[in-house]
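quick one
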Amino acid sequence: MHQGRHVSLEDPARADSANIGFIVGERCVAIVDTGGSVAMGAALLVTVRAATEKPICYVINSHGHFDHVLGNAAFTDLPGVQFAGHSNLAENLGASTDFFLRQFAAELGPAPAAGQIVLPTLQVADRQELDLGGRALELQAHATAHSHADLTVYDRETGTLWLGDLLFMERIPALDGSLLGWIEVMERLQVIAVNRVVPGHGPASAPWPAASLPQMSYLQSLRDEVRAGIGAGEFMEDLMKTAGAQQRSQWLLHEFNHERNVSRAFTELEWE
Ligand SMILES: [Zn+2]
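structure w/ zinc ion:
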């Protein structure tokens, strides 16, 4: 596991903001997320090589946000490697490509690799088991939640559930999919018995379901307060200042994502 830093999109270290890592089986290795730059992916590859000579058979992307996928290009030359992701991931990455090329030219590195957005070769619509040799990974694709392409990875041997950005700890959650969908997916995951989870942002591992509680409280208050505000005829601009504001001190980088979360929640809930 490599723990990403809690920095905003405007920070020079933004490529290193997500948790990334790898799992070693008897036969081969699976990568879970590759970081926000080709250099991050290359550093991860160096770390894997120092740990084991076994081939990398899978690069799994938990979803399509830049800080989890732009390192993929560091793995494309490996023989036999498969890129696994949610069945919505290819469309997601396709829609983000122009944005990535514009905003993350430095992270995408120099030519010839420049601008390489690597699409999944193994698409998971529901459940898929991957065999690393004596070590099975259970991939589960989820309905729209944090994003439109959230995929979790369960390592049965250690009882570790990699949640990607379905779980934010310490830094404020970023809503890019569906607020109601996210709450629903988390309610379903909360009852699963696992030894530990790996959040997309936050500590390298955390106890379950305790680790889910702060985010759940944030998402629920966002839902309840935006919904009440809409019912009372309030404007989105005012709700950005008031809804969920009592949680401000509990989250790092609150000022970078909260208002955007309110606007997305508003757009979703005004049609109820
Ligand atoms: Zn994300």
